[in-house]
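Hi R.,

Here's the chain you asked about this morning:
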Amino acid sequence: MSGIVLAAPASGAGKTTVTLALLRLLHRQGIVVRGAKSGPDYIDPAFHAAACGAPCPNLDAWAMPPSRLAGLMRGEGLLVVEGAMGLFDGAPPDGRGAVADIARLFGLPVILVVDAGRMAGSIAPLVTGFAGYDPGVRVAGVILNNVGSPRHEAMLRRALAPLELPVLAALRRDKGLSLGSRHLGLVQAAERPDLEAFLDRAADALELTLDEETLLSLAAPLPQAGLTPLLSPPAQVIAVARDAAFSFTYPHLLADWRAAGAEIREFSPLADDPVPEAGFVYLPGGYPELHAGRLSVASRFMTSLRTAARDAEIYGECGGYMVLGDSLCDADGRVHPMAGLLPLETSFAERRLHLGYRRVKAFCGPLHGSFAAHEFHYATTLRREGAPLFEVEDAEGNRMPDSGISKGRVHGSFVHVIDRCA
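And here is the predicted structure, written out as tokens:
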């Protein structure tokens, strides 16, 4: 049980590609390896799992206490933690929640992934600055990405030599190793028919240049995990929507519910599955706006959802919240009728970014108490009526407008719940 952190000076350096390449390379060599993703990210973990065959937890140093983080890190073999954004980029006002917090808290070494495509000698002051910025965060090595040629690589290595930090790999520029994206992040792993070929190609490229022995020697022991309070299940039997339109669920949330004795019954609205019999129906976030036409005519799903509202509690997060509303307007301006269980109309015709950590307190509904959460969507609310679901503060403690709607047994908001507030 040991771990390393892969981080970068900024977004776009190629952290995810390098992480996937490393996970796939070690996995196919028979080394027990697992991935983890720092921060509130629903998409990258599916790529991690595909690369190495092991579930990928989210490690959120803003929303989770150390005991929760340690529990999620527990497991066999090498844990490769992929950072989000830059190494020290976290929430205001003090940068809390950055991947540097995880490295500092658990003494994990940081491997800095640097996009070297437009630099040579300037890489030295860049790496020097990151390595010396925080004495509690140990930058233990460098992986060069987007290297143009052997001559370019030699220039970079020569510039870094006085720092006495090992250059663990120098990946050549390769357009075939780019990952497609859309408005909420990467195109989902399940949507890439070429995923296996991509992972193997990335692993092949890394294998040509990786100093594997040195990298593995840098890994530090993982912490001993203590007891973590579980999030209580809202019902004994829980129906969870799961498909390309409803894919944004945190594994630790479902794991908590299962560990507390709840039964999880998954179903696919896109396949027009009826909602399973349950005491609680959970519609998570995802990309319903990309599938609004199919969802609006999924008659078995919609009819059973409306029927379920008579006896079960129904809760929608972000995309699920929009589907519970009266209508959803897609990016082309087409309006699609939705479930009609909440007085809500949303639109993607004019996109507006809503992003940030949130602290929320439930006024009512199946989720009792206060939670650490986040919000990330581009939808515009055209109409929202009725009693709100959550009282909301941002990461700096500033009061924000109340969020969501609660109507009878049906509840929802744009907020994604991560963990209970300490």
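One quick note: The radius of gyration is 22 Å.

Cheers,
M.
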